Amino acid sequence: MDDDGRPEPGALAQFHAMDRSGWDALAAAVYHPNGVICDINRPALNPFWRPKRFLNTVFGVFTGQVRDGFHLSAEDYEGQETSEIDVGSFVGLFVSRKAIERTGYPDGAVFIYGDDVLYNLRMREQGNRIGFAPKLRFEHDFKSIEGPVQRFRPLWKAYYNHRNLLLVYRRAAGILFWPALLLILPKWWRKARHYGEERPAFESLTRLAIRDGLRRDLTRSHAEVLALATVVEDIAVKTSK
Hints:
The chain is of the alpha+beta class. It has helices at about 10-15, 50-65, 75-80, 95-105, 115-125, 155-175, 175-190, 200-215, 220-240; strands at about 5, 25-30, 85, 95, 130-140, 145, 150.
Protein backbone atom coordinates (compact mmCIF):
# COMPACT_ATOMS: atom_id res chain seq x y z
CA MET A 1 0.00 0.00 0.00
CA ASP A 2 0.93 3.68 -0.17
CA ASP A 3 0.26 6.53 2.25
CA ASP A 4 -2.61 7.61 -0.01
CA GLY A 5 -3.60 4.15 -1.27
CA ARG A 6 -5.79 1.50 0.32
CA PRO A 7 -7.74 -1.67 -0.55
CA GLU A 8 -11.41 -1.20 -1.29
CA PRO A 9 -13.80 -2.98 1.12
CA GLY A 10 -13.67 -6.72 0.54
CA ALA A 11 -10.42 -6.65 -1.48
CA LEU A 12 -8.39 -8.66 1.03
CA ALA A 13 -11.15 -11.24 1.42
CA GLN A 14 -11.31 -11.49 -2.36
CA PHE A 15 -7.55 -12.08 -2.48
CA HIS A 16 -7.72 -14.92 0.05
CA ALA A 17 -10.67 -16.52 -1.74
CA MET A 18 -9.24 -16.47 -5.27
CA ASP A 19 -7.18 -19.16 -6.99
CA ARG A 20 -3.58 -17.93 -6.75
CA SER A 21 -1.90 -21.07 -8.08
CA GLY A 22 0.69 -20.39 -10.76
CA TRP A 23 1.19 -16.76 -9.75
CA ASP A 24 4.14 -15.41 -7.76
CA ALA A 25 2.71 -11.89 -7.48
CA LEU A 26 -0.65 -10.27 -8.17
CA ALA A 27 -1.40 -6.66 -9.08
CA ALA A 28 -4.73 -5.07 -8.19
CA ALA A 29 -6.87 -2.77 -10.31
CA VAL A 30 -6.30 0.72 -8.91
CA TYR A 31 -8.88 3.51 -9.13
CA HIS A 32 -9.15 7.14 -8.06
CA PRO A 33 -11.77 7.78 -5.32
CA ASN A 34 -14.20 8.91 -8.06
CA GLY A 35 -13.99 5.49 -9.72
CA VAL A 36 -11.77 6.49 -12.65
CA ILE A 37 -8.81 4.22 -13.41
CA CYS A 38 -5.64 5.59 -11.81
CA ASP A 39 -3.41 5.88 -14.86
CA ILE A 40 -0.11 6.00 -12.98
CA ASN A 41 -0.89 2.55 -11.53
CA ARG A 42 -1.91 0.85 -14.77
CA PRO A 43 -0.11 -2.52 -15.16
CA ALA A 44 2.19 -2.88 -18.14
CA LEU A 45 3.94 -5.29 -20.47
CA ASN A 46 7.58 -4.56 -21.23
CA PRO A 47 7.58 -3.54 -24.92
CA PHE A 48 11.27 -4.40 -25.28
CA TRP A 49 10.44 -8.05 -24.51
CA ARG A 50 7.39 -8.16 -26.77
CA PRO A 51 7.73 -7.20 -30.48
CA LYS A 52 4.06 -6.28 -31.04
CA ARG A 53 4.00 -4.07 -27.96
CA PHE A 54 7.26 -2.49 -29.07
CA LEU A 55 5.81 -1.45 -32.43
CA ASN A 56 2.67 -0.08 -30.76
CA THR A 57 4.81 1.92 -28.34
CA VAL A 58 7.00 3.41 -31.10
CA PHE A 59 3.87 4.38 -33.02
CA GLY A 60 2.48 5.95 -29.85
CA VAL A 61 5.49 8.27 -29.58
CA PHE A 62 4.35 10.01 -32.75
CA THR A 63 0.63 10.03 -31.90
CA GLY A 64 0.99 11.21 -28.30
CA GLN A 65 -0.37 7.91 -26.96
CA VAL A 66 2.90 6.23 -26.03
CA ARG A 67 1.63 4.86 -22.69
CA ASP A 68 -1.20 3.03 -24.47
CA GLY A 69 1.43 1.05 -26.37
CA PHE A 70 2.56 -0.96 -23.36
CA HIS A 71 0.01 -0.40 -20.56
CA LEU A 72 -3.18 -2.41 -20.18
CA SER A 73 -6.34 -0.87 -21.58
CA ALA A 74 -9.59 0.03 -19.84
CA GLU A 75 -11.12 -3.12 -21.36
CA ASP A 76 -8.60 -5.24 -19.45
CA TYR A 77 -10.07 -3.88 -16.21
CA GLU A 78 -13.53 -5.18 -17.15
CA GLY A 79 -12.52 -8.85 -17.27
CA GLN A 80 -12.68 -11.35 -14.45
CA GLU A 81 -9.70 -13.54 -15.21
CA THR A 82 -6.13 -12.93 -14.10
CA SER A 83 -3.80 -12.08 -17.01
CA GLU A 84 -0.01 -12.08 -17.17
CA ILE A 85 1.88 -8.78 -16.95
CA ASP A 86 5.47 -7.67 -16.52
CA VAL A 87 4.95 -4.65 -14.27
CA GLY A 88 2.49 -3.73 -11.52
CA SER A 89 2.68 -0.77 -9.16
CA PHE A 90 3.35 -0.88 -5.42
CA VAL A 91 -0.25 0.22 -4.81
CA GLY A 92 -2.07 -3.09 -4.48
CA LEU A 93 0.78 -5.47 -5.29
CA PHE A 94 0.64 -8.84 -3.52
CA VAL A 95 4.07 -10.54 -3.55
CA SER A 96 4.60 -14.13 -2.49
CA ARG A 97 7.33 -15.18 -0.09
CA LYS A 98 8.78 -17.35 -2.85
CA ALA A 99 9.16 -14.34 -5.14
CA ILE A 100 10.92 -12.38 -2.39
CA GLU A 101 13.29 -15.28 -1.74
CA ARG A 102 14.19 -15.33 -5.44
CA THR A 103 14.37 -11.57 -5.99
CA GLY A 104 15.28 -9.98 -2.69
CA TYR A 105 13.83 -6.65 -1.59
CA PRO A 106 13.25 -3.41 -3.51
CA ASP A 107 16.13 -0.94 -3.74
CA GLY A 108 15.55 1.64 -1.01
CA ALA A 109 17.83 4.16 -2.75
CA VAL A 110 15.28 4.58 -5.58
CA PHE A 111 13.11 7.31 -4.09
CA ILE A 112 9.43 7.97 -4.92
CA TYR A 113 9.17 6.82 -8.55
CA GLY A 114 10.19 3.72 -10.46
CA ASP A 115 11.14 1.50 -7.52
CA ASP A 116 8.10 -0.66 -8.18
CA VAL A 117 8.83 -0.98 -11.91
CA LEU A 118 12.45 -1.93 -11.29
CA TYR A 119 11.41 -4.51 -8.70
CA ASN A 120 8.77 -6.04 -10.98
CA LEU A 121 11.27 -6.32 -13.83
CA ARG A 122 13.71 -8.02 -11.46
CA MET A 123 10.98 -10.45 -10.41
CA ARG A 124 10.28 -11.31 -14.04
CA GLU A 125 13.99 -11.74 -14.79
CA GLN A 126 14.11 -14.28 -11.93
CA GLY A 127 11.33 -16.32 -13.55
CA ASN A 128 8.42 -15.12 -11.40
CA ARG A 129 4.94 -14.86 -12.92
CA ILE A 130 3.05 -11.63 -12.20
CA GLY A 131 -0.68 -11.46 -12.81
CA PHE A 132 -3.17 -8.60 -13.10
CA ALA A 133 -6.30 -9.46 -11.10
CA PRO A 134 -9.08 -6.97 -11.99
CA LYS A 135 -11.31 -8.38 -9.23
CA LEU A 136 -8.87 -6.99 -6.64
CA ARG A 137 -9.71 -3.29 -6.34
CA PHE A 138 -7.63 -0.61 -4.63
CA GLU A 139 -8.22 3.13 -4.23
CA HIS A 140 -5.42 5.68 -4.75
CA ASP A 141 -6.04 9.31 -3.83
CA PHE A 142 -3.20 10.44 -6.11
CA LYS A 143 -2.65 14.18 -6.64
CA SER A 144 1.06 14.61 -7.43
CA ILE A 145 0.53 15.16 -11.17
CA GLU A 146 -1.74 18.07 -12.04
CA GLY A 147 -4.16 18.47 -14.92
CA PRO A 148 -4.25 17.07 -18.46
CA VAL A 149 -0.70 18.30 -19.17
CA GLN A 150 0.50 16.40 -16.08
CA ARG A 151 2.58 18.98 -14.21
CA PHE A 152 4.40 17.71 -11.14
CA ARG A 153 3.25 19.01 -7.76
CA PRO A 154 5.42 19.82 -5.87
CA LEU A 155 7.86 20.56 -8.66
CA TRP A 156 10.87 18.82 -7.09
CA LYS A 157 9.21 15.46 -7.89
CA ALA A 158 10.11 16.04 -11.55
CA TYR A 159 13.75 15.33 -10.68
CA TYR A 160 13.04 11.89 -9.21
CA ASN A 161 10.60 10.95 -11.95
CA HIS A 162 13.05 11.61 -14.78
CA ARG A 163 16.15 10.30 -13.02
CA ASN A 164 14.46 7.04 -12.07
CA LEU A 165 12.81 6.61 -15.47
CA LEU A 166 16.28 6.42 -16.98
CA LEU A 167 17.05 3.55 -14.60
CA VAL A 168 13.80 1.87 -15.63
CA TYR A 169 14.40 2.31 -19.36
CA ARG A 170 17.95 0.99 -19.08
CA ARG A 171 16.75 -2.19 -17.34
CA ALA A 172 13.73 -2.66 -19.60
CA ALA A 173 15.41 -1.88 -22.93
CA GLY A 174 18.82 -3.49 -22.53
CA ILE A 175 20.94 -2.81 -25.63
CA LEU A 176 18.14 -0.66 -27.09
CA PHE A 177 18.44 1.85 -24.24
CA TRP A 178 20.63 4.37 -26.09
CA PRO A 179 18.57 4.40 -29.31
CA ALA A 180 15.42 4.75 -27.19
CA LEU A 181 16.81 7.96 -25.66
CA LEU A 182 16.50 9.61 -29.08
CA LEU A 183 12.72 9.34 -28.64
CA ILE A 184 12.51 9.80 -24.88
CA LEU A 185 14.56 12.93 -24.23
CA PRO A 186 12.90 15.23 -26.80
CA LYS A 187 9.52 14.20 -25.37
CA TRP A 188 10.66 15.25 -21.90
CA TRP A 189 11.89 18.64 -23.07
CA ARG A 190 8.57 19.33 -24.78
CA LYS A 191 6.91 19.09 -21.36
CA ALA A 192 8.65 22.30 -20.30
CA ARG A 193 6.23 24.44 -22.32
CA HIS A 194 3.45 23.54 -19.88
CA TYR A 195 5.20 25.03 -16.84
CA GLY A 196 4.93 28.76 -17.59
CA GLU A 197 6.91 30.75 -15.03
CA GLU A 198 8.21 27.49 -13.59
CA ARG A 199 9.82 26.49 -16.86
CA PRO A 200 13.40 27.39 -15.80
CA ALA A 201 12.90 25.35 -12.63
CA PHE A 202 11.56 22.34 -14.51
CA GLU A 203 14.38 22.46 -17.06
CA SER A 204 17.07 22.73 -14.39
CA LEU A 205 15.68 19.81 -12.41
CA THR A 206 15.24 17.70 -15.54
CA ARG A 207 18.78 18.48 -16.74
CA LEU A 208 20.18 17.36 -13.39
CA ALA A 209 17.96 14.25 -13.41
CA ILE A 210 19.26 13.23 -16.83
CA ARG A 211 22.87 13.63 -15.71
CA ASP A 212 22.37 11.60 -12.53
CA GLY A 213 20.18 9.00 -14.25
CA LEU A 214 22.68 8.33 -17.02
CA ARG A 215 25.43 7.97 -14.42
CA ARG A 216 23.14 5.76 -12.30
CA ASP A 217 24.00 8.07 -9.42
CA LEU A 218 21.48 7.82 -6.55
CA THR A 219 23.61 9.65 -3.99
CA ARG A 220 22.18 13.17 -4.37
CA SER A 221 20.46 14.11 -1.12
CA HIS A 222 16.81 15.04 -0.96
CA ALA A 223 17.77 18.26 0.82
CA GLU A 224 19.90 19.23 -2.18
CA VAL A 225 17.06 18.54 -4.60
CA LEU A 226 14.65 20.61 -2.49
CA ALA A 227 17.17 23.45 -2.26
CA LEU A 228 17.69 23.48 -6.03
CA ALA A 229 13.96 23.47 -6.68
CA THR A 230 13.49 26.41 -4.31
CA VAL A 231 16.34 28.43 -5.84
CA VAL A 232 15.24 27.97 -9.43
CA GLU A 233 11.61 28.66 -8.53
CA ASP A 234 12.66 31.95 -6.90
CA ILE A 235 14.66 32.86 -10.01
CA ALA A 236 11.66 32.12 -12.21
CA VAL A 237 9.41 34.37 -10.12
CA LYS A 238 11.93 37.26 -10.11
CA THR A 239 12.47 36.97 -13.86
CA SER A 240 8.76 37.22 -14.53
CA LYS A 241 8.39 40.49 -12.59
